[in-house]
UniProtKB/TrEMBL annotation:
This is ADP-ribosylation factor GTPase-activating protein AGD12-like isoform X2. Keywords: Metal-binding, Zinc, Zinc-finger. The keyword Zinc applies. Residues 181-297 form the C2 domain. The keyword Zinc-finger applies. Residues 40-168 form the Arf-GAP domain.
Amino acid sequence: MNLADLPQHFLRLHFLSLGMKGLEDPLIIRSMRDDTLEGKRIIKDLLNQSDNRSCADCGAPDPKWASSNIGVFICLKCCGVHRSLGTHISKVLSVTLDDWSDDEIDAMIEVGGNSSANSIYEAFIPEGVKKPGPDASHEERTRFIRSKYELQEFLKPSLRIASRPSERGTLQSSFSRKIMDSFRSSNSSKKSEGMVEFIGLLKVKVINGTNLAIRDMLSSDPYVVLNLGPQTAQTNVVKSNLNPVWNQELMLSVPQDFGPLKLRVFDHDTFSADDIMGEAEVDLQPMITSAMAFGDAGMFGDMQIGKWLKSHDNALITDSTVNIVDGKVKQEVSLKLQNVESGEIELELEWMPLDQ
């Protein structure tokens, strides 16, 4: 068997069995330093993924900490609660300050990010239990995080493991194996037991941006991230352009209990976390309600069937009409980006029923 085929912890044991003399070799020292830098680069790349730019537990932006054995990125306030749980439940590491082992990096990669982790750890949040926000008190955070990870109250019943304090070390490894198996299963098949029922598909054509905010010296490298529930879709990056044209189509599944389509624009940075350039939400209710009421759009000529009205509490620049065009339900949407100094985004939505 080749050494490269052995798991990392066996390789480390093998290396130690050879004695520490080899550590004096400059080539080995340089290799170890390069491995450390590569590990930090991998963790930073994971952090830059759209679903990892906010804390897994409270949603605070720009987390700089992670639970390496759970596989989530967390903020400083939630980090303190995680530490109090003990390393047998959550081993907290700094994204920038700590050295990461190969096993810890592999575990983060295998989980797949905050959205993937939360689809398991928050699968069944009971009615009346509210997830804390960025401004939540320490008591609220502690109560939720303990319920989520230590008491396992929000997991699928098949993943829960009851334990007494004296058994936690042994059972936690069994629990971790079951969690990892669940991640592997959910990543390989999104139609696994417990997944939500979908009622249709939403095709979103991200057309262009206008007068976007400057986040580099003179310009920005913008891209758009869409979220519908736990789903994420992302456009390409347009280099050095405040008026980018994407004309890129993204596809999302629409669950039965759908919420708003969330849109965020980011400036791509090579050596640091990407900067946000504004956000907006699209109310899908007018389009989907109208489309389902009319049924087969192919039976009708071109006509208006619904409208989303501009108001002070949405991001619309002008009223957005829902139309049947060539037998398809479409909606053009012009959005003024929120929480930023400037910027507009043009979208075209198309509703696609599952039987289409």
